[in-house]
Design goal:
5-stranded parallel sheet
Amino acid sequence: MKKDQVKDCEDVVLSMKLIVENLNEVVKVLDREAIKHMLQNILEGERVFVMGAGRSGLVAKAFAMRLMHLGFTVYVVGETTTPAVHPQDVVIAISGSGETRSIADLGRIVKDIGSTLITVTSKRESTLGRISDITMVLPSKTKNDHDAGGYLEKNMRGDYKNLPPLGTAFEITSMVFLDSVIAQLITLTGASEAELKSRHTNIE
């Protein structure tokens, strides 16, 4: 790795501006009915399971942590202590493309079981988007978009050098969206800051 002296940080600033612009655009087109149905199902479900792959999986885990702080019974799919899913449970999948094979296959299993499947994605007409009971669309560029090859080529040539890596827009947008869902759930459940703190881990 070259260790040239850092002369500016314009790419950092430009990338942050692009991320903020993307968030502002997504807010304008949010499906509020889908959000309300999502909230209602989380409140009424017996347990909540979350799943995602890669960085989307990390977003799912962060969401699961906040749900736990609120007192929900929540599990991350794929962990060794995660129990069987039942029809009365809610499963939330996070996938920018909606086509990640492992998550799409698990989504089909969820539907076979009869559980409620909620997908947070950027592609309504994806595999997960089509089979879900609730599809929460957050329009963002993902690594599987049609122009991904062109994006990568331009990135390598330096034309897009100031843009965040592919998938970043969706991952950040989904993180902000799900943290905002938590904010609404705090209001709906009447949870206090003290209650959230009481459930925070004390052995880290």
